[in-house]
Amino acid sequence: MAEIINMPRLSDTMEEGTVATWFKKVGDTVNEGDILAEIETDKATMEFEAFYSGELLHIGIQEGGTAPVDTLLAIIGEKGEDISSHLKGSTQEKEEQVETAKTETSKTAAMPDNVEIITMPRLSDTMEEGTVASWLKKVGDTVSEGDILAEIETDKATMEFESFYNGTLLYIGIQEGESAAVDSVLAIIGDKDADLDAAIAAASSKATPSAKNEAAPIKKEQVVAPETKVEKTVQATATPEAAVANNGRIIASPLAKKIAIEKGINLANVAGSGDGGRIIKRDIENHQSSQGGGVKPFVPSGLESVEEMANSQMRKTIAKRLAASKFTAPHYYLGVEFGMDNAIAFRNQFNSIPDTKISFNDIVVKATALALKQHPQVNSRWYDDKIVKHNHVHMGVAVAVEDGLVVPVVKFADEQSLPQIGAQVKDYAIRARDKKLTPAEMEGSTFTISNLGMFGIQEFTSIINQPNSSILSVGAIIQKPVVKEGQIVIGNTMKLTLACDHRSVDGATGSKFLQTLQQYIENPITMLL
Question: Do 410 and 499 fall within a single domain?
Answer without folding.
Answer: yes
